[in-house]
Model the fold of this input.
Amino acid sequence: MVVAMAGTAACTRSRDMTGTVVRGVSFPKWWRALEDRFDLVSPALNPLRHLGSLAFLLFWILVATGVYLYAVIDTSVDGAYRSIDDLSRQQWWLGGVMRSVHRYAADMFALVTLAHLLREWVLGRFRAFATSSWLTGVALLPLMAVSAIGGFWLNWDQLGQYSAISSAEWMDGWPLFGSVLSRNFLDPAAVSDRLFSLFVFVHIGVPLLLLFGLWFHLRRLAQVKVWPPRPMLLVLLVMLLAMAAVAPVMSHPPANLATVPAALAIDWILLFVHPLVSATSATAVSVLVIGVMLLLLALPFWRGSARAAVAEVHPMHCSGCRRCVADCPYDAITMVPHPQRRGFALAEVDADACASCGICVGSCPSSTPFRSMATLVTGIDLPQQPIDDLRRAMRERLAAMTAPIRIVVFGCDQSAAVREVDSDDVAAFSFTCTGQLPPSFVEYALRDGASGVLVCTCPESGCAFRLGERWTAERLAGIRAPVLRSSVEETRWELVACAGYNLTPLRTALAALRRRLDVRGSSK
Amino acid sequence: MSISFFRWSAQAVLYAAFAGVIALCSQWPPYQPLQPDQALLKISFLHHGQRLAACVEQSPEELAKLPPNMRAPMRCPRERAPVTIEVDLDGRMVYSGTAPPVGLSRDGPASVYRSIPVPAGTHRMQVRFRDSARPTGFDVVRDEIVQFAPLQVRVVDFSAERGGITIE
Done:
């Protein structure tokens, strides 16, 4: 079985029990350690683990408040400012709040999305199985920026004037337009209602494209949790309402093309690009933006660590039960007609989408170690960590252990380093993801000489492969197939969630289990 | 209990800090696009330069060589001259640029757009404009005293319909 070595890359070298070097997937411990420290209330309510769903929620808050604002805005040069300003002053308790929430949600949307991007990059989820999600996500960034900046133009105040003119001046540097866009803002007569129709398109049409792009972004993920946990949703709404109440967003004076605004309460989060262009040059910022975009788009193709081998299907042992399809976090498995068994289906792995997490191995009923085969071959397996290696290594370890209480610990390379607790009376085995553990192995270990079994997963919502900790818990609890049989004595096994940096919960759970087994042994 | 309270409080503080940073960065610090004692001079035009060659009448022989639908009596080369503008402020040139006509046949309009901050106050401005193929000199020159109020935007443009160079 694999004993993972410390690593900080998306793909680390590991060695198995026989000393053979294999490659497995691992995520940077330092980031996970940092992230786990935000498990203040509970791991499931750590906002860093819900950045994608928080961004999704903020998008819909923007849609909801935007629909209200669009209903009341007069989309004409003369009416736009007045209608929005009236909203903030005369209907501050609803329209004004909507407007402020709309702005602050946009700010938050931008920051949360960038944090989401940063997290996925740090965790190495930008290449291999994550390439599609990464590329589609990066492609959405310009749409987000255009939607956000365009929103300031609709409220035709001095800030909108400044942003529209700055945007036009910046875009005039691109060889895309036949005419000079900035001439649309030379004098008041040039700004027409038709131009406002363009503004409306930018601020409503582009977000629609964003929504369409989101579908592509999520397409390769299974069981997507698009909404954050309800407490987090409520906290976010309260935050936005509080911000709207404490610092309501108000209009600047109306746009006046004959003057330059003296001072602007600029939104530095969404409009930073304008002062940046002024401080440098349109060309410099264009080169910077294009360079960053190209870099982000090229990242998946950058030469990195070799990719871990993907899951392999063994047709003679695949029953076509579809459990691997249901459990795969990346929608990498589909069913095809079985080539040898008429009327049966066979799992097929999409190598590009497979994360090599092994969760499918844990879901396969054929992975049960009770099968009477000299070499355990399952329906779907990881070539670098075959399930037979686990059975063999575990049997050898248990046979060699002489301590009165012998404990088997199953864990993964992403949570607490279970190898740290390996000792004379503890046999620790580490998977790429604990989701790779077929629950029947717990019973098998107990029958094969183990006094107790401890299963260690990542904290709730903290699985590096999205669903491993959830499926493991549900399988052991008997609510998701394949289940751990109810006949297995509950006092002899334990499930513990351990953050990557902190061995304390693991050691505590191990000590508790040891005490329990001790008491149980004494009472017998 | 106390640890739980501490954790809830810490979480609340973090959320509040995040909200505070957003509310702050959303409106502060104020940004000055232009110094208060400056004005903005915008130099811009969108103008067709004159044709580089005059139209010529085609002879009956030349017309006969053309397909019937293309037998126009006059042949007018489409290419236009680039347009040059120079602006002096108090005797010092603040902008000089030549814009080529757009289009594959170089028959489209030439355009320029430039914003230049200038000190507010009274300035003598001279604008020189050339839209013909002449190698030197200018076709239109305008020289006048111009007032720039602080933060005022004044636009130098060219419009043949409005008499040439405009300063507004």
In short: The helical segments of chain B are 2-25, 60-65.
